[in-house]
């Protein structure tokens, strides 16, 4: 079911240093190209890079939703049209191949986002920086757990819990705007 390209992408999980280096270079290039081509002020560039990180998060979330749909329909013995299940399974396998890349890219894009916001002069003494920093710590834990899942699949539950914490701190990062 996996193409050769998907197999190569999945093999990168086994080489975390290579994957991290590749994603770091790709994130830096993406941010640099976006900054130079757009011609926007630094703060707007930082927001754009943060939005790219959110897109990576949505890719990761789509994999989780597709996987859970298949697992839950099997557990509850729900009858599903075979062609529909095959489409969902094919979609899930393609997302599985890019899930770890999107997650690692998300981490680096969010680090670049925070760095650019700091360089743009955003005060560190705001709720946005606090919850942004907490989200970043959660992303670090999630990426570490993601790479550990290869050897210890039982960590998947913790990976989900950390995702939930990241999601909550991300929402707080967006919603709250006060200084202290």
User: What share of residues is helical?
Assistant: over 70%
Q: Secondary-structure element sequence?
A: HHHHHH
Strand percentage: under 5%
- Could you tell me how far the N terminus lies from the C terminus, measured between alpha carbons in angstroms? 54 Å
Name the average pLDDT. Answer: 90
Unreliably modeled segments: none
Give the helices and strands, then pairings:
Blueprint: H1 4-11, H2 16-38, H3 42-75, H4 82-119, H5 127-148, H6 156-175
Short overview:
By secondary structure, this protein is mainly alpha-helical.
Overview of this protein structure:
The chain is globular, with a radius of gyration of 18 Å. The protein is mostly helical and 180 residues long. The protein folds into 2 domains: 1-122, no CATH class; 125-180. The protein has helices at residues 4-11, 16-38, 42-75, 82-119, 127-148, 156-175. The chain has 6 helices and no strands.
């Amino acid at each position: 079911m996996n193409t050769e390209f998907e197999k190569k992408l999945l093999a990168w999980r086994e080489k975390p240093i290579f994957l991290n280096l590749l994603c770091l270079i790709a994130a830096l290039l993406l941010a640099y190209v976006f900054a130079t081509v757009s011609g926007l002020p630094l703060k707007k560039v930082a927001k754009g890079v943060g939005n790219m990180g959110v897109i990576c998060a949505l890719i990761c979330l789509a994999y989780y939703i597709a996987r859970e749909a298949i697992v839950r329909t099997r557990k509850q013995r729900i009858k599903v049209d075979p062609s529909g299940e095959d489409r969902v399974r094919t979609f899930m396998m393609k997302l599985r191949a890019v899930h770890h890349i999107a997650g690692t890219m998300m981490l680096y894009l969010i680090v670049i986002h925070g760095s650019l916001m700091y360089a743009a002069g955003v005060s560190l003494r705001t709720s946005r920086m606090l919850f942004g920093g907490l989200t970043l710590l959660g992303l670090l834990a999630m990426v570490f757990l993601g790479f550990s899942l290869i050897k210890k699949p039982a960590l998947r539950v913790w990976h989900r819990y950390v995702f939930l914490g990241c999601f909550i701190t991300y929402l707080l990062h967006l919603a709250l705007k006060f200084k202290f």
